């Protein structure tokens, strides 16, 4: 399978997902669609619905009937709605000004509407899930949303915890990101009518992928070209992420104090960000985070070994590598 | 059936519901339970779970096995969690200071935690629903939450609409209150394995009951003994409710202007509230609202006519009358 073919296939899947996302944003009230569209069509990578579709197709015959195909796409997008719902509430909770380089929804329509449209998208996601009439899927999704919502609260309570351990960090990113990506893959497998052990393998695949995804996200907050122009969001908010945790393990007392001080200072400047980055770099915070993400990607790929060898497996492997290499 | 027996039975059902509510607030994180308990155990009437239980028992043999009984109670409380979730988000959206005579949760733990615990209770409710593994119940509940969340947004958009018609008001209270109470009754009927037409009758029973319930609530905001000590919340917030809509229909221009002016003034005093009440009273706003609520209660009771005649029907009729007569 050539990279060109793989990219072609991913592009065509993403096009269908994009169309499906539009089709189901069908509130009778223009305002609700307007705010929903603003957050849904704001340049997300669609990694979640894509994984659901690919995990389903991994087990299915190419000659699927159209109706079942539609069901798969319709179900896949519920994960994007769920994700968007959490972004809206996160932005209110964090008083965020921007999201993906644009004004945050709350900056345009206020906190009130943003909270309520978040609730709407959440309800919409659960509604799409219930259309399947499949108790197993509902079980996965309701367990996922419960874990996620507890995780959001734990993250809020941890906000000022500068002694966050690696294990605590993992618990946070597990609930914040990995649980949902894991559910995308598991529900895909259920839709593909995979056997129980295969569903479990894909559930774990998604979990490891999600952990790696969030570690890379947290790394890019310091190192991406975009943050090159500005300060990292996590740094500005004083959020302790893996690069900082690793750096604090090796840093001497002076470096440690400087790093924590800069993280906790409300008004930081570009030069403070550069100082923090130097301390993290010198104390292996970036390199060790990258290694950790690599380990998780390898664990994810291992989960695929016993699964059917076909085009869709190649796509899942490709995406795993892509998530590790991405620059934004 | 004597009133004493009826009250005894209601009290014993409410006790079991109260216990069940406690049992299932079982997050591993004390903070989540603390905030959840604060809103859940703040003097709610438990009308929603009570209706689910009674509507189920209307169709069931008295010698139910314990496991199925537990399932009914477990399912009934999900409506209280859902309701509590909306109260938490409402309080943030309305910047409410108080709720049921106590400080609002947001006043104790801040908006951030309040939004997220609202999300948690919502997720918890859906989780309890999914434990039933019953696609019909999931269908009712996800449709309900979707309608409710749209309704919340419509209410927000209508906030400054002083030309709200009776039909628009009904749409608001239908989504705000009646949809959920209707779902309580319908899910009860499904748990009672009622026939499809019986489920529909109870769905409608709940709808009419819910409409009446909210009209009485809006009436009590002006007339209850509690608001006798203070100003009504709706009046303070400038919310247009049925008594105002009716009064505006009959009021002369001067009364109309005064009433709208007082409703829209940010800092109102006790004497302004009394003036508004006099205008509403004089223009039949209260009496006509009460009549409207009565009409809905009668429609609700009509829905019960073709259903089994037993003790539980007596209880449902009693509750219908109680909701109309309640003073707080």
Automatic annotation (TrEMBL), chains A, B:
Pfam families with a match to the protein in the record: polyprenyl_synt (PF00348)
GO terms classed as biological process: isoprenoid biosynthetic process
Cofactor(s) required, per the database record: Mg(2+)
Alphabetized PROSITE patterns for the sequence: POLYPRENYL_SYNTHASE_1, POLYPRENYL_SYNTHASE_2
CDD domains: Trans_IPPS_HT
InterPro entries linked: Isoprenoid_synthase_dom_sf (IPR008949), Polyprenyl_synt (IPR000092), Polyprenyl_synt_CS (IPR033749)
The protein's name: Trans-hexaprenyltranstransferase
UniProt xrefs under Gene3D superfamilies: Farnesyl Diphosphate Synthase
EC assignment: 2.5.1.30
Source organism superkingdom: Bacteria
């Amino acid at each position: 399978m050539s990279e060109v073919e793989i990219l072609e296939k991913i592009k065509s899947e993403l096009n269908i997902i994009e169309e499906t996302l539009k089709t189901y944003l069908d509130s009778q009230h223009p305002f609700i669609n307007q705010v929903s569209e603003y957050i849904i069509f704001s340049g997300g990578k669609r990694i979640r619905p894509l994984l659901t579709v690919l995990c389903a197709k991994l087990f299915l015959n190419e000659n699927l009937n159209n109706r079942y195909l539609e069901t798969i796409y319709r179900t896949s997008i519920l994960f994007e709605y769920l994700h968007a719902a959490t972004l809206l509430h996160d932005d209110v909770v964090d008083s965020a000004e921007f999201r993906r380089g644009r004004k945050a929804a709350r900056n345009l329509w206020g906190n009130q509407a943003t909270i309520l449209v978040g609730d709407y998208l959440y309800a919409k996601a659960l509604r799409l899930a219930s259309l399947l009439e499949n108790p197993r899927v509902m079980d996965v999704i309701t367990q996922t949303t419960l874990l996620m919502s507890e995780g959001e609260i734990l993250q809020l309570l941890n906000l000022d915890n500068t002694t966050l351990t690696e294990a605590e960090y993992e618990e946070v990113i597990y609930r914040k990101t990995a649980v949902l990506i894991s559910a995308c893959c598991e529900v895909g497998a259920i839709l593909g009518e995979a056997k129980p052990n295969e569903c479990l393998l894909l559930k774990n695949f998604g979990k490891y992928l999600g952990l790696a995804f969030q570690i890379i996200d947290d790394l890019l907050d310091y190192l991406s070209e975009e943050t090159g122009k500005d300060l990292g969001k996590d740094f500005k908010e004083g959020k302790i992420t893996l690069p900082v945790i690793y750096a604090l393990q090796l840093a001497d007392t002076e470096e440690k104090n400087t790093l924590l001080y800069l993280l906790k200072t409300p008004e930081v400047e570009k030069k403070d960000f550069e100082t923090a980055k130097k301390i993290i770099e010198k104390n292996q915070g970036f390199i060790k985070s990258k290694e950790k993400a690599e380990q998780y990607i390898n664990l994810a790929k291992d989960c695929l070994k016993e699964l059917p060898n076909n085009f869709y497996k190649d796509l899942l492997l490709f995406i795993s590598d892509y998530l590790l290499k991405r620059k934004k």
